Amino acid sequence: MQDEDETRRVVLGWREWVSLPELGIDAIRAKVDTGARSSALHVDSMELFDRDGSDWVRFSIHPGDECPEVTAQAPVIDRRRVTDSGGHATVRVFIATTLALAGRRHRIEINLTNRRNMLFPMLLGRTALEGAFIVDASQSFTSHQPGPPDGALK
Length: 154
Prior knowledge:
This protein has helices at 4-8, 126-129, and strands at 10-12, 15-20, 25-33, 39-42, 45-51, 54-61, 70-75, 78-83, 89-101, 104-113, 122-125, 133-135. The protein contains two helices and twelve strands; from the N terminus they run αβββββββββββαβ. It is mainly β. The longest helix has 5 residues, at 4-8. The radius of gyration is 16 Å and the shape is globular. It has a single domain (14-135), classed as Acid Proteases (Cathepsin D, subunit A, domain 1), CATH 2.40.70.10. It holds the Pfam family Zn_protease.
C-alpha cells in the first residue's frame, strides 16, 4: 500500500532536463543519482569574491552544445568536502538556488565543480529529490520540460 506522500511525488527517470531559473539556465541535462548525496553543477570558470563582507562566487557555464554561455553569481552558503564516485575527496563551494523540474520548484543546494569529462553537466543528488520525487531507473526524460534549442545535442 502506498502512503499519501508517495502518491504526491513525481516519477523521474535516470536523466532529466532541469531548469535553474535564478542562474539563467533554462535547460540543462541532469543525471538523477540517488547514490550521490549532493547535487553538482559543472562550471567552466569560477571566481570567489567578497560582497559587503560575505563570500560570493561568480561562475560561467555552457549548459549544452549550441547553448550560449551563462554567467551567474550567488552567495556561497558553505564549503564542504565531497567525495566523487572515484573516491577522490575535494572541498567544494556550495550555493543555493531554485530547481524547476516536472512542474515543481524548490530550493536546493548545489556544489560547483569541473564535470567537463562527464556526460551530464549536472548531477541531481538525493537531497534535491527528497520528498518530491521518486526515481524509476528504467525511464528517462519523463518531466516533459523543454530541452535544448533545436540542433543542440541531446
